[in-house]
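$ ./design --mode recover --in tokens.txt
reading tokens...
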């Protein structure tokens, strides 16, 4: 079954959708959309480092994404506004990454594949990495779900309950870094943030509880991945952007339903 590139692509899309859904909800609740975008931009530097040191792309991207996440968590609130800090780090990282790529000799690199994804080229090893990362993220978020929710709703309430909001933020940013590392092959650097945010935003009008929002977001992400692949195959369009377009269409539909209902 895994010999078919379309089956591998579908499984890869489902893996990223399942991992991104609960994190996307926290990104929406915490208004951290720019963080996901910044971490994704920084992953280009990870690609350059991985190629320079002859290591796996996943490992290089994960290291840089983790450094980005911990740096932001450490420096935020210490004289730097979050959006300013993210802007500096994101644009610096992608600039250094692109410059580093230009110095690589004897290495052929398809920047478009890393910027917009190449889900149809996913192999068995890529599939194992994607689902391994997805299961790790789901286990981490499931383990800390209540603490993350409490810290998101009210840092003061979290303190009163013996929960450290900074620690929960660090856990969330580490999980986001893992998702960025596994998603770069599927939708690419420029579209990762969209796959995090759009399904969660589309699920919000349909949800009455945080758990239901995460579940519906996972469903929307899965439908977007499978529907986007089907449309890309039918109309010969880029798979990653088509997946995001389907997610945007679902968001428009749920927003319209919300307006009609109100």
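writing sequence...
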């Amino acid at each position: 079954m895994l010999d078919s590139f379309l089956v591998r692509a579908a499984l890869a899309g489902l893996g990223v959708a399942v991992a991104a859904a609960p994190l996307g909800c926290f990104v929406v609740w915490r208004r951290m959309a720019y963080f996901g975008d910044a971490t994704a931009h920084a992953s280009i530097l990870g690609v350059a480092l991985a190629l320079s040191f002859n290591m796996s792309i996943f490992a290089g991207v994960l290291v840089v994404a983790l450094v980005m996440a911990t740096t932001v968590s450490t420096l935020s609130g210490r004289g730097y506004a979050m959006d300013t800090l993210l802007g500096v780090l994101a644009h610096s990282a992608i600039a250094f990454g692109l410059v580093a790529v230009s110095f690589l000799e004897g290495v052929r690199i398809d920047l478009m594949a890393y910027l917009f994804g190449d889900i149809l080229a996913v192999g068995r090893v890529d599939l194992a990495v994607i689902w391994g990362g997805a299961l790790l993220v789901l286990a981490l978020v499931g383990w800390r779900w209540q603490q993350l929710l409490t810290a998101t709703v009210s840092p003061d309430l979290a303190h009163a309950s013996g929960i450290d909001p900074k620690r929960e933020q660090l856990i969330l940013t580490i999980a986001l870094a893992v998702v960025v590392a596994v998603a770069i092959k599927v939708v690419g650097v420029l579209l990762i943030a969209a796959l995090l945010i759009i399904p969660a935003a589309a699920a919000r009008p349909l949800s009455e509880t945080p758990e239901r929002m995460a579940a519906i977001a996972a469903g929307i992400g899965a439908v977007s991945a499978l529907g986007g692949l089907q449309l890309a195959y039918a109309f010969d369009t880029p798979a990653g952007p088509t997946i995001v377009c389907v997610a945007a269409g679902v968001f428009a539909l749920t927003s319209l339903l919300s307006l009609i209902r109100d």
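exit 0
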